[in-house]
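In the current project phase, we have settled on a layout for protein records. One protein thus recorded is set out beneath this paragraph:
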Amino acid sequence: MSKTKEAKRVTTHVLQEMKASGQRISMITAYDYSLARLVDGAGIDVILVGDSASNVMAGHEPPLPITLDQMIYHACGVVRGCERALIVVDLPFGTYQGNTKLALSSAIRIMKESGAHAVKLEGGREVAGSVERILSAGIPVMGHLGLTPQSIYKFGTYVVRAKEEAEAQRLREDAKLLEEAGCFAIVLEKIPAALATEVARSVSIPVIGIGAGAGVDGQVLVLHDMLGINKEFNPRFLRRYADLHHIITDAVGNYISDVRSGDFPNTEEQY
């Protein structure tokens, strides 16, 4: 696949312009060079090197086990595969909570060692100090509210968040706090659509939804989920745009059959 030389790099400023003009922002995860190159070439606006790599790449159920070194490894491959997309990297669990100095050093490592463009971290007022300290070093920060997977053991469930008014009000306040702290965007995960729409209209920065309805400024999905590689995960918000599970399974099965029958390689596939 040839990649256009004229592709304009997406920046945090470009995302702000997109929100102002009403143009929806497309965001997707990627964890390696090959798939990052494909989604970048397709014209995606933002690539998230998510800590969901812990799930889809390493087979862990929660994202907690992935390390900073592993996130940097994945981010390096993604950066090498991209010419256009803004690349955001999750700060993994344990690298920013409750320790602003550690948060800053973690973010600096990601930026210096991978060449990514921004970091993302989960939480509102409880991580405000870390957000501000990272921003003080000139590193762009994306926030994440609603269902925050790194806190799944606190929640105890993956159900929709902020359905009760007290939690909804806290989310509204945290979104304003993150905006005022200097975050360039916020992800809202698995919250009522009406609340997400309200929050997106109340802040001047882009709001990206996942399971948060259509009234926000953009959407994000996990690549392996939307391509149908992962068949076990079936939330309401997921739309599968391909069925690579069956395509890959059938292709490998045909390869095995051809090897066993002696059909592969044929005379034209030899030197």
About this structure: Residues 244-271 form one domain. The mean pLDDT is 94. The chain has two domains: 12-240, 244-271.
